[in-house]
Write a structure and sequence with these properties.
The complex is a heterodimer.
Chain A: H1 6-15, H2 57-70, H3 85-92, H4 124-143, H5 152-163, H6 175-191, H7 203-208
Helix pairs in contact in A: 2-5, 3-6, 4-6, 5-6
Chain B: E1 3-5, E2 9-14, H1 18-29, E3 34-37, H2 45-48, H3 57-62, E4 75-78, E5 86-87, H4 103-106, H5 116-119, H6 121-129, H7 147-161, E6 169-170, E7 173-174, H8 198-210, E8 214-216, E9 226-227, E10 233-234, H9 256-259, E11 270-273, E12 277-283, E13 290-296, E14 302-312, H10 317-326, E15 348-356, E16 374-376, E17 397-399, H11 420-431, E18 434-442, E19 450-458, E20 464-469, H12 474-493, E21 498-502, E22 547-548, H13 564-584
Parallel strand pairs in B: 1-14, 2-3, 2-14, 3-11, 4-20, 14-22
Antiparallel strand pairs in B: 4-5, 6-7, 8-16, 9-10, 12-13, 13-14, 15-18, 15-21, 16-17, 17-18, 19-20
Helix pairs in contact in B: 1-13, 7-13, 8-12
Classes of the chains: A mainly alpha, B alpha/beta.
């Protein structure tokens, strides 16, 4: 598989800009079933090299390979990697949220009924560090190589097992919780204003047609004709997509 | 960490949301020296709502910049007495506020008047359906104040808030196409109704087709420029869609910060102290009179603020907590039914329908305003015959498109995947083509739903967290399912491609994980009997006469509507009682 379906994904990787490619050298991903059509959007200007502040090189590769399957690049719109989601997550982990400082984190940590909410003592930084290590260990045990070295179908299988809570990541981290957390952060990075490092080129917004920080719909609110609001997205910075 | 004592003032107000701001203004008009103590930070349109940086979904809706700092204090929750309560560690079902303006800064703006029959709910049901109709476990009761008594205060609050709406009946005359179930008004809304979004217009047409009575939701978002009775100015709402969770950059959404604080800020006899966590109301040796409050300031000093009158105006359920911490009133015991503080805790009872349309029909959900929309009231209050249905309560139904943005989640048709290429297609095909509608119903009060102090968990100042013991009851689930089935007729009349009906199943437990509403009430309820209420009908403590407790905490049971309009009117009602009778003759306004 590692040689089978490179061309289509290689084009996707090219869009990331050369700066990211060294970090992704181990990523030989591809899924023959998903042909990557050019989505009609010119490649975003190559972003300046982003050096992760929190993730190690191994974790960084893992995160790219993981997000790449949560939101793959295809004709519908950019993938999470192309949209800068890993950079978004890394930057978020440096904020008070990353350190669990937006949450009540006093003990004792006792599990209640699931409806009463997460009772984990792990901060987001803890969750990524422990979760990535545990998934990597699980994949290595089962398949003898790193998660990022798996092809797309194999990575999808790992994600499905995590999503269903079937993977043992140790007693402190139910796999469904790890999966849901990374998925949520990925969606946030895909759709948050680009000032936070993700949604590069406003690609997430363009995919669904959200106009971003326009902040004024007076002229459109009562047109009531079922036709789309016509203007493209705009970022807080004033930049238009 | 020094201990200090400040000079005595006439009035100490705990919390500076709507209730605290209204009370501060009213007490200043009475010539009293006022200090307001707010646990959170100073907040105002600038810098907290400044354009363009406020148009940031991640910071405000996802990371909850303007909401309570849960790292310092939260609540614990359990479904019943048999469980150990666990902390509400992250935001989910409800989003309490913190900071100057409180939840009034980041609310939406639906601005309702309580239905007259809801103010005397137990009497009304007993009169129409008989005493046996109300289940034994249901502890609903009358507020002890009538709509006629509150009407002038609803009227004034609407003028302060700059509320947009269409009246139906003014002084007995039908004047417009408002809510035909609405009680009589003394004057029209200060501003005409806002424009409607396409989604609300689709809902209005479909509701008419089904035979219901749609009308524009009264909205504390301005339809035009406005100057209120305090000479505070507002600009017209432009439907920016960054409303709930945000401070309004357009000065269009009523808030204590925009609509009241400008009239107080330069007043030398008024002082607003942010960053002050009130630890307790201090009582004299008899326990029957408050002497002021003690608070921790931002530097960690413990400060005593003597005051002749104390207004407890914290967020909803925290009023009960401060009374419990201050040993004012008798804590409620669900086994004996004795005691009142914490009794009749209540919430809202939401159901939602998502209608998904073809991709050539654009609803554009990012266009919105928090209080805007179209509702029908045919199944709210007692506007329909409950006799054959066998439940108490009801729901207004509406499209209230406040501005749906993608990072907070995109609703998808049932069975859609949550990630991967198929999720992308589903999200793209749904986002701009979905109408969301709610049945925003009553949650009534029950013997086993109450507030108390948690025995295990503490806040950053070492005080016990408040503990909620709360779960859904069969009556409320049956009500919600009935009304949601009526709303489903409207959804289907809109001829969507598919719908999702999100309604509680029989036996469902309270789920704290996903947002419902922040409309908590009770715990320090008003009433006519000190055995079943913490406050008399003027929101005055039965036990300590110089303590008044405005807020939805006074609601003996939940309303069909959003609470803020009724909270504001009750606060003016209470303030006028203080300014009139109480100041002339300080003491209980109602004999015990």
């Amino acid at each position: 598989m590692s040689n089978g379906s490179l061309p289509s994904d290689r084009r996707g990787l090219m869009k990331l800009g050369a700066a990211l490619l060294p970090a992704l050298a181990g990523l030989e991903a591809g899924h023959a079933g998903i042909g990557r059509a050019e989505a009609g959007t010119p490649p975003a200007a190559a972003p300046a090299a982003y050096a992760p502040g929190y993730f190690t090189a191994t974790e960084w590769r893992f995160l790219h390979a993981f997000c790449d399957r949560l939101i793959p690049a295809d004709e519908t719109g950019p993938g999470a990697v192309e949209a800068g989601v890993p950079e978004f997550i890394d930057r978020q982990l440096a904020t008070p949220w990353g350190f669990g400082k937006l949450w009540y984190m006093e003990g004792p940590f006792v599990d209640g009924p699931p409806e009463l909410g997460v009772q984990s003592p792990l901060t987001p930084r803890d969750l990524y560090r422990q979760g990535i290590a545990a998934v990597e260990a699980s994949v290595r045990r089962a398949q003898g190589r790193a998660f990022a070295e798996l092809d797309a179908a194999a990575r999808d299988a790992v994600l499905h097992a995590l999503d269903k809570g079937e993977t043992d990541l140790g007693p402190a981290l139910p796999s469904a919780y790890f999966f849901a957390s990374v998925l949520q952060d990925t969606l946030h990075g895909y759709f948050a204003d680009p000032v936070h490092g993700g949604n590069r080129g406003m690609g997430g917004w363009k995919m669904v047609g959200f106009p971003g920080a326009r902040g004024d719909f007076w002229d459109w609110v009562d047109r009531h004709d079922g036709r789309p609001y016509p203007l493209p997205p705009m970022s807080i910075t004033g930049r238009r997509a | 960490m020094a201990e200090t004592r400040r000079p005595e003032v006439d009035v100490a107000i705990v919390g500076f949301g709507w209730c605290g701001a209204i009370m501060a203004k009213e007490m200043r008009e009475a010539g009293l020296r006022v200090v307001a103590l707010e646990r959170g930070a100073m907040r105002d349109t600038w810098p907290d709502g400044a354009y363009p940086k406020t148009l940031d979904e991640l910071t405000y809706n996802v990371r909850h910049r303007l909401f309570q700092d849960l790292s310092q204090s939260t609540v614990t929750i359990r479904h019943n007495e048999g469980q150990q309560a666990v902390p509400y560690r992250r935001f989910g079902a409800f989003l309490p506020g913190q900071g100057v303006g409180g939840a009034g800064l980041h609310w939406s703006g639906c601005h309702w008047r309580v239905l007259p029959e809801e103010l005397r709910l137990r009497s009304h049901y007993e009169e129409r359906y008989g005493r046996g109709f109300i289940p034994d476990e249901m502890t609903i009761q009358d507020f002890g104040v009538t709509y006629a008594e509150l009407e002038p205060h609803f009227d004034f609050a609407e003028k302060v808030f700059g509320t947009s709406g269409t009246a139906y009946r003014v002084k007995g005359q039908v004047v417009g196409e408002g809510n035909p179930f609405e009680a009589d008004r003394s004057s029209p809304f200060p501003l005409p109704a806002q424009k409607n979004t396409y989604s609300a217009e689709l809902f209005r047409r479909a509701a008419l087709e089904v035979g219901f009575h749609p009308f524009s939701i009264p909205s504390a978002n301005t339809s035009a420029p406005y100057t209120n009775p305090y000479d505070c100015q507002m600009g017209p709402c432009n439907f920016c869609g960054f409303c709930s969770g945000y401070a309004c950059y357009m000065y269009s959404k009523a808030s204590p910060n925009v609509n009241i604080l400008p009239a107080l800020r330069d007043d030398p006899e008024f002082e607003l102290r942010p960053g002050c966590e009130v630890l307790r109301v201090d009582l004299d040796s008899t326990g029957r009179q408050a002497t002021g409050v003690t608070y921790a300031d931002a530097e960690g000093n413990t400060v005593t603020q003597p005051a002749r009158l104390v207004i407890v105006a914290t967020f909803a359920y925290n009023n009960a907590r401060l009374l419990l911490l201050s040993r004012i009133g008798q804590p409620y015991d669900p086994r004996s039914g004795e005691g009142t503080v914490g009794r009749n805790f209540n919430y809202q009872n939401m159901a939602t329908i998502k209608a998904f349309f073809d991709t050539d029909k654009y609803v554009d959900p990012f266009i919105g305003a928090g209080g805007n929309g179209v509702a029908f009231d045919d199944f709210n209050g007692d506007h329909f015959d409950h006799g054959p249905l066998g439940f108490v309560g009801g729901s207004p139904c509406w499209v209230n498109q406040a501005g749906n943005k993608p990072a907070s989640g995109i609703a998808l048709p049932a069975g859609s995947p949550g990630w991967g290429a198929a999720w992308k297609k589903a999200a793209r095909d749904a986002y701009r083509h979905t109408v969301s509608m709610d049945a925003h119903g009553t949650n009534l009060s029950y013997r086993d739903c109450y507030l108390s102090l948690d025995p295990t968990y503490r806040d950053a100042w070492g005080q016990p967290l408040l503990r909620m013991t709360f779960d859904w009851h069969d009556n409320d689930i049956r009500m919600s399912r009935y009304v949601t089935a009526q709303m489903e007729k409207v959804a289907r009349a809109m001829a969507p491609k598919s719908i999702n009906v999100l309604v509680k199943q029989p036996g469902a437990h309270f789920d704290a994980r996903s947002y419902q509403t922040t409309h908590m009430g009770g715990g320090a309820v008003m009433g006519t009997d000190p055995r079943t209420s913490v406050l008399n009908r003027y929101l005055q403590s039965w036990d300590v006469h110089n303590v008044f407790v405005p807020g939805s905490s006074a609601f003996p049971q939940g309303l069909g509507y959003n609470p803020t309009g009724t909270v504001a009117a009750l606060t003016y009602w209470s303030a006028r009682a203080i300014r009139g009778e109480y100041l002339r003759n300080p003491g209980p306004l109602v004999p015990r």
